[in-house]
Amino acid sequence: MSVGPNASGRSTGARSIHRVLAAAVAAALLVAACGDGDTEVDAAATETTAAPETTAAPETTAAPETTTAPETTAAPENTAAPETTAAPETTTAASVDLDADQQAVADAWSVVFDSTTDFDAKAPHLADAEALRPTIDAYASTGETFGGISLVPTAVIVDGEAATVTYDVLFGENAAYNALTGSVALVDGTWVVGRDEFCGFMASARTPCA
């Protein structure tokens, strides 16, 4: 008589099946878990890490153009100052050293031939002065156009009652003629210029005696 499995055998078989199934499930879960991990690893491995963008080298800044130094402008040559033209020297009669007699002669000569001296000053030293008044007046007018005319003694030689005068003719302050000579006579103690001497010079001054 066949004896069927007992309850204890069924319990043992059932437990064996359960253990197998549990082991299979665990294996499946492990495989699944491993498969997912591999996938993530593979995915991570397959992701291509993009190479960092190459930073372009900065553009080379061109060296600044060399600025040519401006041409040096030559300093202008020094212009020589024009030579100063010296003002003409004013020529005057020379100063002379005279004794008393010579000085008296020189004074008489000077007053008679000075165009700026009035008639009353001339008259005592000029022969025939009253008759020569018109000439004296004309001489004064002529002298004004030259800034005055004068005959300045530079030397006097006295010989008794006669004297010789060396003189310069001045127009204004300038000597027009030099070293001319004339004569003077002593009349009653006064040195007097004769008519001929006076009129001779008046003629040269274009104021002839009448």
Detailed description of the structure:
- The chain is α+β, with helices and mostly antiparallel strands.
- The protein has five helices and four strands, in the order ααααββββα.
- It has a four-stranded antiparallel sheet.
Q: How would you summarize this macromolecular structure in one to three sentences?
A:
The protein is an alpha+beta fold and 210 residues long. The protein has helices at residues 7-46, 100-113, 119-122, 133-145, 195-204; strands at residues 149-159, 162-171, 174-187, 190-192.
SSE layout and pairing:
Blueprint: H1 7-46, H2 100-113, H3 119-122, H4 133-145, E1 149-159, E2 162-171, E3 174-187, E4 190-192, H5 195-204
Antiparallel strand pairs: 1-2, 2-3, 3-4
Task: Tag the structure with descriptive keywords.
210 residues; alpha+beta; 39% helix; four-stranded antiparallel beta sheet
Portion in beta strands: 15-25%
Count of distinct strands: 4
Question: What is the overall pLDDT average?
Answer: 73
Number of helices: 5
As laid out across the biggest beta sheet, the strand order is 1-2-3-4
Indicate the radius of gyration in whole angstroms: 74 Å
SSE class: alpha+beta
CA-based shape: globular
Poorly predicted parts = 1-18, 31-52, 54-58, 78-82, 84-94
- Kindly, what is the distance between the CA atoms of the first and last residues, rounded to a whole number of angstroms? 219 Å
Largest sheet: 4 strands, antiparallel
N-to-C series of helices and strands: HHHHEEEEH
Helix content: 25-40%
